[in-house]
Amino acid sequence: MWKTAWRILAAILVLILALLGLLAGSVIVDGLGAGARLEAVTNTRLPGVGGPDVRAYVARPATPGPHPAVILIHEFWGLNESITEKADLLAEAGYFVVAPDVFRGSATGYIPRAIYQVVSTPAEQVNADLDTVFAWLAAQPDVAGRRVAIAGFCFGGRTALLYSLHNNRLAGTVIFYGGPVTDVERLRALPGPVLGIFGGADNSIPLDEVRAFEAGLEQAGVPHQITVYDGQPHAFVSSVDGIKAGGAQGRAWDEMLTFLQATLKDDNAVRRDVSPVRADDAFGWAAALRLAFSHLDHLR
Known about the structure:
This protein has helices spanning 2-31, 34-39, 81-92, 111-119, 123-138, 155-166, 184-187, 207-220, 240-245, 247-265, 285-299, and strands at 44-46, 54-59, 67-73, 96-100, 143-153, 172-176, 194-199, 224-229. With 300 residues, it is an alpha/beta fold. The chain has one domain: 3-Layer(aba) Sandwich (Rossmann fold). It has an 8-stranded mixed sheet, with helices on both faces. α3 (81-92) links the parallel β3 and β4. The protein is globular and about 80 Å long.
């Protein structure tokens, strides 16, 4: 009897190991096509500042500058057409936009690979690459160097927030359903106003966390606007076509444009004299799996 039980247990373990091996292999195989995927959506290589060059998609307004600028951070999929199209839409509104590849050569449409990208990319490495992006932007003659904001979606939303804690020269931060920071003392380091856009049906970010983020910003004295779109899942601002069609996607996009107008273009823009804080929070497996399940729910 015990021998039979041990054989069954051993067979189960072998099956689990085999499935894990297949999963790891599929992640590796998917990564083989990352270079071609990035080549299709990048048009600029930014010279590295103390690190490797950063590949990016740059979208410029049609009119002469200097223009306010936006650093646009991708989701956990990596840099893709959805983000470059949003960069073009922002450029049409008068912003010089850089959408960098912060996964250093990896992009995917496969959820296991997306999870791997997130957990294998240290936040301090991302911040270093964004320092390269910011330095390059500040050196461009058609960019108003003191009017640079950062915005991001999903993984990019949290990345935008962490980079704003790291770089006190940013003028503003836009977070589309990114994991919030709720520690008041850390939030005091934010150099400019914050716009947070969240979905009321987002399973990866509980509304209690959103409200704690809002309360933390209030206590920290950071100008902010936090909007929860009732009934909307994670990653609900999914495409330029959806934005142009209106609804929740269009309203969220217009909210960002209004925020950027006040933050980067109007004369009464708010700037805060703050010191940066350490912002290298690990994006662990638990958070990455929550994002994955939220995207699965969104794709149904």
